[in-house]
Automatic annotation (TrEMBL):
The active site is at 186 (proton acceptor). It comes from Candidatus Desulfatibia vada. The modification N6-(pyridoxal phosphate)lysine is found at residue 186. Gene3D superfamilies: Aspartate Aminotransferase, domain 1, Type I PLP-dependent aspartate aminotransferase-like (Major domain). This is DegT/DnrJ/EryC1/StrS family aminotransferase. The keyword Transmembrane helix does not apply. Belongs to the DegT/DnrJ/EryC1 family. GO terms for biological process: polysaccharide biosynthetic process. GO terms for molecular function: pyridoxal phosphate binding; transaminase activity.
Amino acid sequence: MNVPFLDLKQTYLELAKEVDAAVKSVLKNGWYILGENVESFENEFAEYCGCKYCIGVASGLDALQLLLKAHGIGPGDDVIVPANTYIATALAVSNIGANPVPVEPDPLTCNIDPQRIEEALTVRSKAVMAVHLYGQTADMKRIQTICQKHKLKLFEDASQAHGATHNGIKAGVLGDAAGFSFYPGKNLGAFGDGGAVTTNNANVAEYVRNARNYGSEKKYYNTIKGVNSRLDEIQAAVLRVKLKHLDEWNSRRSDIARIYLESLNFLDGRLIAPVTGEGNSHVWHLFTVQSNLRDKLQAYLGQKSIETLIHYPVPFYSQAAYQELSHLKGNFPISSAVADQTLSLPLGPHLTKERVDYVCETINAFF
Ligand SMILES: *Cc1c(COP(=O)(O)O)cnc(C)c1O
């Protein structure tokens, strides 16, 4: 049996009729940039998250950069990020001239450890960029308290957590502003690139709305130096269709996660289950196990035609791109252990129970 990590083609095929009609209507309409689909999607996604404003942009990375700039963060400022996040979180900070400061995750949830945030603060600290890694929110209640105490802005990288909640509140409204990615493999994914900023702050919303379109509110009149980072009409039309199915598809992901949790023979050190944090409802963007035999396990599963991935094999501060942080390498034993031991199992809204059972049997047989 062949088990792909994520079968994206199925995400189209299930919705082909609706998606075809939506895309065709954009094509026929003749208005391709910043039109009614972007505006409607922004309203619908804001309503879904429970916030006042949503601004569609070209990618998750751009969403993070624009929300940082909207808060006046730039050169000389420190922004705390999880040491084990995807590199985009750190790049958003460095691309606007600020410094990403890595902080260790909690070894169980793999989300940023609130206590270590406080230990990492300096006079230059301006903000925390919490990341909701793998589909569950960071420990936002504790992080909110720390940010209030130290007068720091709190942002969310919600790229892996569309629909996740923390104490009943959705990702996207747990801080001052949030960035989402709609990269095809995300829980809410377009058929191309896309992203969005969500916030309840009218000034931040206005800044991002202008900045994404060359800094102009009115065509050819530019109030700030902006960029070209627009969500396009075709992707917005696709996202409107897919948003209607997000909760159902998230619940299918939960069903698969439940099978993994019930059927795999977890054993301390050798195979460790993912842990859901207090107050969290998980949307299972990824199902990650940890194992001290990770590389052997991955190779074995590969031989059995089961595709797995590693999120992420090299922490951002150890990447060649971040040579200026290379002296920090030894300071992060937890994120380094996560990089060496974590393995993401196949998971998606179209993975059949038969295939999940096969993955479980194969893993149990390996051990
Ligand atoms: C996907 C992702 C991003 C970047 O999104 P793009 O749309 O690819 O720019 C940022 N942060 C995290 C945690 C992600 O998973």
